Amino acid sequence: MTLSKSTLLLIYFSLALSLCSASVFQDSTTAITGDTAAVKIAEDDPILTAMDQSWMNIRKEWLAFSADSVTLNIHGFDFDSIPVYADSTYAKRIAVLNEATPIDLEYNRYVQAYINVYARRRRDITKQVLGLSALYYPLFEEQLDRFDMPLELKHLAVVESGLNPSARSPVGATGLWQFMYTTGKIYNLEVNSFIDERRDPYESTIAACQYMQYLYGLYDDWNLVLAAYNSGPGNVNKAIRRSGGRKTYWEIRPYLPRETRGYVPAFIAVNYIMNHAADHNLYPIEPPIQFPEVDTLQVCRRTTFDQISTFTGVSVKELEVLNPAMKRNIIPKSEKCLTVYLPMEAAGRFLANQEELYNYQPDAPQAVDGYIVEDVIETHVVRSGDVLGKIAERYGVGVSAIREWNNIRGNRIYPGQKLEIHKTIRTKVGQTVAQKTERKKESVEEEKSEKPKKTVDSSNLKIHVVQRGDTLWDIARLYPGVSITDIKSVNSGLDSRRLKPGQKIKIPPSS
């Protein structure tokens, strides 16, 4: 007798239920211990885990991603071979791609130059992008389809960011789709001290679709949409005027900003490479995770990556990769709730331990030499006559730090504006709440009361090597009992606005 797939599946789950019923609904736990009391971690329901795994496998079969270079090497190229083709071959291949999209894909010497970049000069980057496409392209396609836009626009994120959600340009454009602060705000991307939704793959993709849809309504031409996405509608409109009213990209190209002149050729080249990677002996590097393996949860309560890691087994580094929008590894309390991305199997463990996870405090304030050290954020309401320099002096912080914490460019502030001030507070162990509150209200004059400067034995100094994206605030948090002011005191001439990866900074012992 041959059983149908549905019958076999039913038998499987029935057997699994009978085997697991004695333990599934009991407190199946794993205990962890540390400096705090033992914590019990409940296991996820194995039946639901199996169902999740089944659905994930189906989605992975649909994606059909492979990083096996042996299988993908359909031409039998040598490992280090870099194929080159005649112009006529490139032209024919791009002509085929052009027939399948409403975007005008043209082959010319400008496009050829960018094909050389991706296929020859930056092969390692192209391989990384091919791998990351398994994580991001299905998401892009889903939203482009929702907005009834050409799916080929997914390649734009490669030109913009190389599929790096944490990418930031010298002028401040951020995320997969490289939104500037103002444009992101127009399309409802929240940016504050804890989150930057320009770096959220889902939210930023929706915003990018909305922006491109708006631009298409202006120009009715996808290449002009791409040009306007890069340089802004104002520059495209000026180029149209200077060209005598012409309205195709190639006609106005000479009048566009220099960067934008290469933008559409780069987009066409990426479109070509992503479809003909194997023809150039290019194969994907395995991504850290694929799209079907990612699940989402809505979190409304303040939660840290350390809490999630403890109860799900997902490393903090993995959480950072999946949740680049969380700037400080913290999901802040939010009325609208925030989306957290997790490996599918971890989402079940999160839900099975939800209350315990929220109440667990691995990062409680630490006692250092008789003091509790806490990082706090105070709010300063700007008054008439306030200037950034005066405010910075009052709180004992740098002007550049205030700008960074509040996304301010320049020095303009206005009465009533609320500014976040980040500080490290040291409170004596056992101090009452009232005493602690009074301590926070002490004036800067008291904090700066005259006292002899202490000398620091150079043998007690630690060295911190600056990582990409580090600020003095972030660095100070890594060393309990050390404030930004302490760090500046032992690093003469340190410019907090110009920290560079690899730069070495001296860290004094805790106060």
Give a structural overview.
- The chain is mainly alpha-helical.
- It has three domains: 110 residues, no CATH class; 212 residues, Orthogonal Bundle (Lysozyme), CATH 1.10.530.10; 142 residues, no CATH class.
- The protein is built from 24 helices and eleven strands.
- A three-stranded antiparallel β-sheet has the order 7-8-9.
- A hairpin with a 6-residue loop joins strand 1 and strand 2.
- Helix 9 crosses helix 10.
- The chain is globular.
- The termini are far apart.
CATH class category of the largest domain: Mainly Alpha
Helix content: 40-55%
> How many individual helices?
24
Can you name the CATH architecture of the largest domain? Orthogonal Bundle
CATH fold call of the largest domain: Lysozyme
Q: Report the sheet-strand fraction.
A: 5-15%
- Give the spatial strand order of the biggest sheet: 7-8-9
* Quaternary structure of the protein: single chain
**Helix and strand composition category:** mainly alpha
Which whole number gives the mean pLDDT?
83
The total number of structural domains is: 3
Q: What are the low-pLDDT stretches, counting only 5+ consecutive residues below 50?
A: 1-29, 33-37, 432-437, 442-453
What radius of gyration results from the CA coordinates?
27 Å
Specify the overall morphology: globular
Give the total of beta strands. Answer: 11
**Major sheet description:** 3 strands, antiparallel
Tell me the distance between the termini. 78 Å
